[in-house]
């Protein structure tokens, strides 16, 4: 058994696996940045209630939020070519993750803004700020502080969800571990231990960060 | 999209049934497991709290797909043969139970601590007080988040497609590759998912508003 572990963790295999970790991190980081920006914009649109527009955006958000991420991955990777766009695997994965996670973040942002005391906006308006100035300078900064723990835990889900992109053959950790243990079944357990550990370390660090931010804020 | 429903309604319904069955089974079992670990975490024993903490952290921080694949790939080799549906449901149960444990624990903590003190002062043991006084009150707060967990369960059950669990997502792939109408097939599957998840999430939002 021990020999299996030693053989499985050969330098070549480890380099290959850590390359997968790199792709997981690349896809996660780009999607985190993208979904944070888009999600914040969508959340604000949903909060400010622009006639018709906010309602339509709201319906789109609810529809995407309530679909499985795997389905959205299929849409971007297998569906888009039917419409004449053929994305590469990594951009397709990033696109799907960003679309899905930004709707999740939109909900967090909206409820975060709603949790800010309405007196803040009234005070801002009474001091001569326009509605958008009040939102940007007074309400949003306070809302962001409240939302940070929820946002970080959403990003933990995002990192874990990158594993679903193995279904469109994104060469990340899980996919690469399958290739390694596909060559030798003795490597199955060492590979599962390795990727479970890698995911655990990344996600646990993020959740410690979330807990620290939660405590500091309370 | 409509002709997909017309031509493949049997396949789609079967998939929908498997998805619902797996989600409901996983909800029931993860509720039991999750409540158990939430109680362990709130118990006076340090060892019990440690065990619960380790369990929750492990299953919260490892992707569902890795857990499911573990049961699908490793278990048949060393322990017991199981099909994709079983492996998927076990994976889903363990993964969700960690989140439910956190939810239930938050519910227990939101019950006024005077309730426990009062119960203990009246001669109930810690577990009796939990069972008869605290948990019934905690579950009132827990219902909206549990509903949202169920929505997540239905969405996450699509990982069964990876292990041949014959769920909705799996059937969607089958239809997409046999009809070659990718977008129509996946749209039909999407509509069926929404039929389950949208009403529940709207109802839970309504409940949350009413409770607040």
UniProtKB/TrEMBL annotation, chain A:
One of its GO terms (biological process) is amino acid transport. Keywords: Amino-acid transport, Cell membrane, Membrane, Transmembrane, Transmembrane helix, Transport. The chain crosses the membrane at residues 20-45, 52-77, 89-109, 187-213. The keyword Transcription does not apply. Residues 21-210 form the ABC transmembrane type-1 domain. InterPro entries: AA_ABC_transptr_permease_3TM, ArtM/GltK/GlnP/TcyL/YhdX-like, MetI-like, MetI-like_sf. GO terms for molecular function: transmembrane transporter activity. It is a multi-pass membrane protein. SUPFAM superfamilies: MetI-like (SSF161098). This is Glutamine ABC transporter permease. The keyword RNA-binding does not apply. It is found in: Cell membrane. GO terms for cellular component: ATP-binding cassette (ABC) transporter complex. Belongs to the binding-protein-dependent transport system permease family.
UniProtKB/TrEMBL annotation, chain B:
Coiled coil: none annotated. This is Glutamine ABC transporter permease. It holds the Pfam family BPD_transp_1. Keywords: Amino-acid transport, Cell membrane, Membrane, Transmembrane, Transmembrane helix, Transport. It is found in: Cell membrane. One of its GO terms (molecular function) is transmembrane transporter activity. Residues 16-204 form the ABC transmembrane type-1 domain. Belongs to the binding-protein-dependent transport system permease family.
């Amino acid at each position: 058994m021990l020999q299996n572990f030693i053989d499985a963790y050969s330098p070549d295999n480890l380099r290959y696996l850590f390359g997968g970790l790199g792709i997981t991190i690349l896809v996660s980081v780009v999607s985190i940045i993208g979904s944070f920006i888009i999600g914040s914009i969508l959340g604000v649109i949903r909060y400010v209630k622009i006639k018709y527009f906010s309602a339509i955006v709201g319906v789109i958000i609810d529809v995407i939020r309530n679909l499985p991420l795997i389905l959205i991955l299929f849409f971007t990777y297998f569906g888009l070519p039917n419409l004449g766009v053929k994305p590469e695997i990594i951009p397709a994965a990033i696109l799907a993750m960003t679309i899905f996670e930004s709707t999740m973040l939109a909900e967090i942002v909206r409820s975060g803004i709603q949790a800010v005391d309405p007196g803040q906006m009234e005070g801002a308006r009474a001091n001569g700020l326009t509605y958008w100035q009040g939102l940007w300078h007074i309400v949003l900064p306070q809302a962001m502080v409240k939302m940070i723990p929820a946002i970080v835990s959403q990003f933990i889900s995002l990192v874990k969800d990158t594993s679903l992109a193995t279904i469109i053959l994104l060469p990340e950790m899980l996919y690469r571990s399958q290739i390694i243990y596909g060559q030798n079944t003795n490597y199955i357990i060492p590979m599962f231990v390795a990727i479970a550990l890698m995911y655990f370390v990344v996600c646990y660090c993020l959740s410690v960060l979330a807990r620290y931010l939660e405590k500091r804020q309370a | 999209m409509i002709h997909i429903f017309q031509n493949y309604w049997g396949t789609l319904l079967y998939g929908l049934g498997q998805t619902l069955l797996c989600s409901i089974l996983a909800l029931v079992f993860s509720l039991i497991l999750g409540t158990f670990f939430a109680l362990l975490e709130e118990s006076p024993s340090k060892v019990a709290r440690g065990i619960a903490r380790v369990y929750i952290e492990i299953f919260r921080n490892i992707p569902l797909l890795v857990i499911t694949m573990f049961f699908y790939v490793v278990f048949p080799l060393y322990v017991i043969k199981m099909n994709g549906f079983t492996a998927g449901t076990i994976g889903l149960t363990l993964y969700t139970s960690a989140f439910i444990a956190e939810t239930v624990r938050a519910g227990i903590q939101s019950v006024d601590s005077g309730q426990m003190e009062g119960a203990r002062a009246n001669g109930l043991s810690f577990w009796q007080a939990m069972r008869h006084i605290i948990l019934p009150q905690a579950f009132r707060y827990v219902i909206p988040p549990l509903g949202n967990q169920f929505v997540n369960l239905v969405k996450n059950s699509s990982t069964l497609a990876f292990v041949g669990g014959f769920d909705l997502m799996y059937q969607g792939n089958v239809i997409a590759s046999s009809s070659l109408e990718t977008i129509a097939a996946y749209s039909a599957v999407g509509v069926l998912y929404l039929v389950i998840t949208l009403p529940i999430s709207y109802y839970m939002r309504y409940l949350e508003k009413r409770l607040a």
